[in-house]
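Worked problem 6 (solution included).
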Amino acid sequence: MSAPALKGPYWATVRQHRHVVWALPALAAVGLAAVAALRVWAGDPGPEGPFAYRARSYQVMRLCMEYAGTGLLLLPLLVGAFAAGPMTARELESGTWRLALTQSTTPRAWLGAKVLVAGAVSALGAAALVLVFRLGWTRVSGTWQLSRFDRGPYEATGPVLAAYCLLGVALGVLVGQLVRRTVAAMAVTGLLTGLVLLGVGSLRWSFLPVETNSIPFAGNPVKLLPRDSLLTDMGLLTASGSRLPNQACFERTLNADVCPADLNVTGRYADFHPASHYWPTQLIETAVVLALAAAALYAAFRVLRARRG
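Solution. The predicted structure is:
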């Protein structure tokens, strides 16, 4: 984003926060170089199998991608905290926002410039970081805590990360106006954004109905779950079609492969989300989060109008 190409409050906002504006592109560039170096160093991931020994370089790359996924999960909190504190609450706390109004700028244009600049930078930066993460993640996907359904990699591999960043911006400008204290506004916005992340994340796998597989009781349980799927429930089936906990037989016989006759167990079942549910869930969650962001942004402008006209 070039500051000379902008005018009025947009130019002033970019100029005022130019170091942060360039921070995300710089982070994406550093991440790209690091991921490329890790991929070259890791080379061939090595043999497959439960007893296969992975090369140390591959293990290092896997660990780095695990930490990167966790770091990107925290990105919306940082974006929201910055929008709430340095961009909004600090100017209201110090009174410097009045300077903008002396330059033929309305309160609505003042806040709109901050929302547009912060939203554009955070969304584009998040998209770039997602592409960088996917470049490294594809080499280690499917390993422990790095499947597409795991918390961290899920957010870091799709559009939902940009949506949460936009939510952070919307919550930030709203809380910044309500609290008007820099540190307090940053803390409250980070907390609210985190709560939304946890709340929507706990509901995401209920957006689409699960699929179910069943096999005879003597069958191989491994065949219940397709590859790259998310298990949500597993248990035993009786002749009447009712479900029992997976450990029901073991609790009675101390042998998971032997069931008492009175239980009348005939099969096993598994409820799961297949790999094909990943992108629809991403799009549904993105729409939900963007709707929340739009509501928070509407509230922010209503507060601005009520307090400053």
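Discussion: The beta strands are 211-216, 230-238, 243-245, 265-273.
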